Amino acid sequence: MACQAKASSLLVLSNGGANQTTTQLLLALGTYIGRVMPYEVRPRGLPSGRVAKLVSALRSEIGNVAALFRHAMVLSHSAAAFSLPTLLAAKLTGRPIILVIWDIYPESLGWASRHRLLSWCLSKLENAAYALSDLVLVNSEDYLQHVRRKGAGNVRVVPMWTVEEPRPALGQPRRPSDPLRLAWAGQINPLRDLPSTVRQVLDSCRGEVELHLFTSSDIPPALVQLAQAEGRLTLKERGFLPLEKLYSELGRLDFGLVSIDPRFDMPFFPSKTMSYLLAGIPVLFEGPRTPALDRLFDADGIGLRVDEVTEERLSALHQAFPERRRRYLERVETEVADFAANLPRLLNRH
């Protein structure tokens, strides 16, 4: 009986708390994998305070290693270094290891060049996790050279999936005289370059702009100054909301804003893009070009780059969005379900 359970179950490790997007994404992936085998998702919520975080992390990792022996294989995600003890235990006991890579650590961290010793240590630990892995999952082709350089061998491209059933996308026409109501959901930091992106939006639109900020981050002074200087821009601080409430509030707005500093030269796929799609609103994006986002905007047509914004294009996108989103989500559903169904074969388990 124990051998049968071991041969057909997956342990999923999350570095996020139970209500964070990372854990919700892994829970959603588990529903696909659950069609093939049982699974268990273990979140890692950390309290405030350095000592408390360290104690909690150690306790969590001990629990993860213990849980490993109830399962046949383990899945972790970037930064995989935080799960290295469990991954080592998996390798020593012959259990396959799957990594989901959303960010390339430590290179994608803004502080990496300023903390060379810490960056070097994290890089070595992260590379060790790549070397231990049997299968690495990435969101698009632009990740491939980076993860292979870090030691990944068996790599599979799987598109970013959704965390729950999508909300209705109304696609109601927006009059040019109405304020453009934009949502920003998630952290605000220098990598996002949000003030510059909002400046570009104002330059592209003739009317008023409302920016609804769903975040626990401090509002950048440059953004506040822009609102004070521009009578057309209104900032509405909405704070951090649980996902259920967030999706409901997002659906009342016109577009979701995603911004990455154009100088950022690492692969990425902002998970908030999928949050906006689930909530039923199209995406406005400013940042570097990537294969996944090029496909999202050019082929799937569910968003616009900020430098392409005109009143006419905004109106056309809003009306066409419901059908375009339906086709896009159907394609993602098919591709992720196909991956899950073939997971045993991808791991060479027959």
Automatic annotation (TrEMBL):
Protein name per UniProt: Glycosyltransferase subfamily 4-like N-terminal domain-containing protein
Molecular functions (GO terms): glycosyltransferase activity
Tree of life domain: Bacteria
Organism from which the protein derives: Pacificimonas flava
The Glycosyltransferase subfamily 4-like N-terminal domain, residue ranges: 36-160
Record-linked Pfam families: Glyco_trans_4_4
Signal peptide: none
